[in-house]
Amino acid sequence: MQFQHLRYRFELAVVGMRDGPASHSAVPFIMRLQLLSAYKTDWPRLKWIDENKIKVPTIASKIGVSGSFLYYVGNQALDILELPSYRIRKPLSQPLQNHYNTTPAANCVAIDPIQALIITSHTQA
Predict the structure, then answer these.
(1) How far apart are CA 1 and CA 4, in angstroms?
(2) Strands 117-121 and 69-74, how do they pair?
(3) Residue 84 to residues 36, 51, 73, 113: CA-CA distances in angstroms?
(4) What is the mean pLDDT of the chain?
(5) What confidence tens digit (pLDDT) does each residue in 50-69 have?
(6) Which of 23, 25, 70, 120 stands the most exposed, by the fewest C-beta atoms within 10 Å?
């Protein structure tokens, strides 16, 4: 019982997760280990009730997720699709979809929905 912090770190590594923000460090390791163990036992019992498919053009050079958005870059354009969420009741039928022309094509994209901010960058070799 005196090595719960090591077991917690081991269990995190096994499931491929990282520890939460520093504010969670005040929670004892034994409680965090119990939460992680509950996650591991409950995850296989989840039942998926919906599936979304998105067609991404073959010319897309970069595909990723940032914030609650899926984005892809291709042909000097940035396309952003808002991901649906049952937790915050965003409808599945009408996701937000935007298209932006970028010249040159973006190598890196970051989206901050709180500030309504999209950041793109391009680097040359």
Answers:
(1) 6
(2) unpaired
(3) 26, 10, 20, 14
(4) 76
(5) 677 778 888 888 888 887 78
(6) 23
